Amino acid sequence: MLNAVVLPKHWQKPVFGLVVVTVLCVAVFWETWHSIIAIWIRSETYAHGFIVVPVSLWLVWMRRKYYQYWQAKPSLLGLFFLCGCGFLWLTAHLVSVLVVQQLAVLGLLISAYWTIIGNKVILNTLFPLAFLFLMVPFGEDFVPTLMEYTATFIVTMLRLTGITVYREGLHFELATGSWSVVDACSGIRYLIASITLGSVYMYLNYTSYIKRLLFMLAAVLVPILANGLRGYMIVMLGHLSDMKLATGVDHLIYGWLFFGLVMLLLFYIGSFWQDPPQQLDPMPANAEIITRTPYRHYWSVLSGLLLGLSIWPLAANWMIDKQGAHVEIPAQFLRSPLEQWQTVQTQYWGWEPMFNGVAVDAKYFLSDGNYPVGVYLANFGDESQGELVNSQNYLVPQEHETWRIAETAKTPIQLQGGKSLAVDESVLDSAQQDLLVLRWYRIGEQSTVNNYYAKWLQLIKRLSGDASAELLIVLYTETPHGDYAAARARLQKVAALCCG
Predict the structure, then answer these.
(1) CA 220 – CA 45 distance, rounded (Å)
(2) Which sequence spans correspond to the domains of the chain?
(3) What confidence tens digit (pLDDT) does each residue in 50-105 have?
(4) What is the pTM of this model?
(5) Which pairs from 336-342 meet CB under 8 Å and 24+ separation?
(6) Which CATH class name applies to 331-498?
(7) CA 170, 403, 397, 190: dihedral to nearest 10 degrees?
(8) Which of 89, 152, 201, 500 has the least C-beta neighbours within 10 A?
(9) How many Cα neighbours within 13 Å face the side chain of 439?
């Protein structure tokens, strides 16, 4: 925090404690920290994470003259939050929710700082420390929603312009060519960059909390709107140039140039309402008069923090070892169903479910004498190689050579016992044929399609020591394009017979 040469005596022990808990937190939770850095390296969307710590330290350094007039005091409230963040990390680790683990480990580090330097100092360092949470790669859950918004915005603007367009899911066709909205078109990169830059701009230029709130609201909404406009302009460039412009890497360049202009405009407009620069008095009016330098209960506080940081990985390993994982497909799902439905030979439709990190799976085909239905069950075991509930478990990867997801919806099925469940339904489209696919989770004895509820079921099951199977179930069958009623009925019948 301060240059060692001018570090006041009453800050020497607290700063040493901050260094110790930082090193310990990184060492104890290295796997989680490493996962953050690995995502920064492989994803341009989160490369901003490399500058978060330097910016946070710079923001603290700007107020360095204040700290010599404040005395660090241990805070039990910080220790309370440390325990809460530790438990949050433990539960997230048990159910393999990586982003929550990453948020929790940042919370652990900041809570440890809070415990050492006390309530008053932490309050005056709140934004630089809160800014550290932008290290965490977040936002993937918003990508499908942003993609849907972008596709809807582009198609709407094209129709308002008077251009005929046919849309099918995230794909649409104009007279001059075909377009698709993929992950890179969602605008999540622009949104995260805007939040990161906007939060620093807000902190440095406004002292009014209302102005800060309004500017951050603009920093969220403006890039979302701008991304829709960016997509529309790129499609128009391609359309008007007969697909000679904006169809390759140049459309990424246009996108970033447009985003840069939008951010400059946002900051320029925001400058009209900025508050006068805050004059930092070297000795604030509410400064404490330091009459003594000892830090009371220093070693007790530091020892408590070391224990509070170390106990959670040990608890996680103990619970995982005690519980184990059911890495088989239960026999009840492998038996041939009732009466007329019989196992038939494998069907080659050119597509089959395939997910990364599956520990064990099973696939078979059933028929009632008419059209066959494929049944696929995947068990991810202890989820060390892949997660049951994960946004990367695609039915069809984007920009696939043959298949694409043409439609998605929810459809009800009847499970054994008369229970009804709305599951994910997707239409997979290729040049030769269409497939109708149903997908949901079976965790212990419970079935769900909701990702968050599935994680909750996993947590309850694992905390209770239940080692029963956790499955991803996929049913699929061939269907004529646009006529899905008969195929849906077949899938629903098989779901009720053997997968309920």
Answers:
(1) 16
(2) 4-138+291-322, 141-273, 331-498
(3) 999 999 999 998 888 777 777 888 888 999 999 999 999 999 998 888 899 999 99
(4) 0.80
(5) 336/366, 337/366, 337/494, 337/497, 337/498, 338/497, 340/368, 340/369, 341/366, 341/367, 341/368, 341/493, 341/494, 341/497, 341/498, 342/366, 342/367, 342/368
(6) alpha beta
(7) -20
(8) 152
(9) 23
